[in-house]
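User: Second chain of the day. Same drill as before.
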Amino acid sequence: MRPVKKLQVKSGLLTVGELVLGSRQRIGFQYSKQWLEEGYSLSPLRLPFDGAVHVADTSLFGGLYGVFADSLPDGWGLLLMDRFFKRNGMERSEIGALDRLAYIGTKAMGALEYYPESSPHQSTTEDLFALAESARKLVTGETEDVLDELMVVGGSPGGARPKVTVAFSADFSHCISGVDVIPDDYSHWLVKFHAKNDHLHAGIIEKIYADMARLAGLEMPETRLIDVGVQRFFAVRRFDRSRNVKKHILSMAGLMHADFRAPSMDYEAILGATAWLTKNLNNIERAYRLAVFNVLSGNQDDHIKNFTFIMDGQWRLSPAYDLTLSDDAREHTTSMMGAGLPAKKQMDALAAKHGVTNADEIQYQVRSALSQWQTLSRQQLPVSVSQDYAQKLARIDQRVFG
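Assistant: Same format as last time:
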């Protein structure tokens, strides 16, 4: 395979601009005249909205601006991508950022598409059982073979857990690839399989967390459990799709051009960035509610790629996602007012800093929702697992509120 040196970036029928590989492996981006007239700034903080050629000022994200790096996978998707390139004669050290974007093509989360693509995609009916089994074998090292369908459908989402983007019929009896245009009675979903070290009941636990988040007043996408053989997998409806319309999204990591893999921000900065970008008090309150939920639910994997904005005529905070208790973390990836294990003091200070006047009410609503854990889990989890998580949530509540 030849390295990719130039890519067109498109959104729908419009050409957004062009990415070009220059000297010293630096990547330049220039908006198209058409997009400057009809579009908007893809990333208002770091990427100027003008006709000049812009080059990111750091080597982070392989020389890409964060907004384009948002289109690339991490974890599972990156593993699939690397194996695709190796099968086609490219070692990991030879793969550039534009090669990866070309591979993603039209399969990225959000609205941006990259041309040319490295491989054509096909719209085929997916066998979820086969996909799950292929994922299981790959992550446990039993085989290097990956279904072609999994390469296409599973190659774009990020995260360490094996995932596929698919489209389900209204009654969920049929499933097709979510890459191409889908029929009117289908909708776009993301299904998470189990990673090598995942809890046996990871899908059920994440579904219960989503239900509690909804009870706590968070905006949540539709979620459900998908039964595949004797296993149950967590599925979430994609908020970057409205039937066949793609919505532009920008993660906090992309906005700030910061590495989400390492602790790099505080909730104080996240609420500040939300206020700056959305200019909306309701979005600030929503960001605060999510922060409180993460603290009280023990979701310590709250890195900055798990906060996202959607462009819907104007910027707004996306629904919440990737919510579950972190078993192996000691502190939150995102600190709160300087504390890695925040208590009520830090939650109150954060609210005061950003003008959230109903902080006590939000904290009460989140606590009330989390108190429903045993009721929600009773019929879905073994008693020992349900009680174990109930004790963990109780210890967090005790630490925070005394």
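The radius of gyration is 21 Å.

User: Great, on to the next one.
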